[in-house]
Design goal:
Number of domains: 1
Function: This is one of the proteins that bind and probably mediate the attachment of the 5S RNA into the large ribosomal subunit, where it forms part of the central protuberance.
GO molecular function, one term: 5S rRNA binding
Strand content: 15-25%
CATH architecture: 2-Layer Sandwich
Order of helices and strands: HEEEHHEH
Largest sheet: 4 strands, mixed
Pfam family, one: Ribosomal_L18p
Number of helices: 4
Keywords: Ribonucleoprotein, Ribosomal protein, RNA-binding, rRNA-binding
Protein name: Large ribosomal subunit protein uL18
CATH topology: Nucleotidyltransferase, domain 5
Length: 120
């Protein structure tokens, strides 16, 4: 019997997390994509703490993305995350796509973060 979408995504997520890990010097950029919104955070897996977070629900981002497509909104979230990270002195990170394909909104978020100065 074939795997459901959720089971397949969970397997992919576990496979990625075996390799990608965040440290204080190079945190993990974790992406979560729901049907309407997108969330991203930089995580230090050594301590289990979130260093920086951004989402399409934050007030400053929500004002910018009003009337944009979801892909353009994801790009703005990436830019907002990178700006916050650079304020805290974080320049490098490891990208964790969270079981999603590197396509569409996930790719747009990554490109937005790169445009704003985050390196991965």
């Amino acid at each position: 019997m074939a795997l459901s979408k959720i089971e397949r995504k969970t397997r992919i997520r576990k496979r990625i997390r075996k390799v990608v890990s965040g440290t204080a010097d190079r945190p993990r950029l974790s992406v979560f994509r729901s049907n309407k919104e997108i969330y991203a955070q930089l995580i230090n897996d050594d301590n289990g703490t979130t260093l920086v977070a951004a989402s399409s629900l934050q007030k400053d981002v929500k004002d910018k993305i009003n009337g944009l497509t979801k892909t353009d909104a994801a790009r703005e979230v990436g830019k907002a995350l990178a700006a916050k990270a650079l304020e805290k002195g974080i320049e490098h990170c490891a990208f964790d796509r969270g079981g999603n394909l590197y396509h569409g909104r996930v790719k747009a978020l990554a490109e937005g973060a790169r445009e704003a100065g985050l390196k991965f």
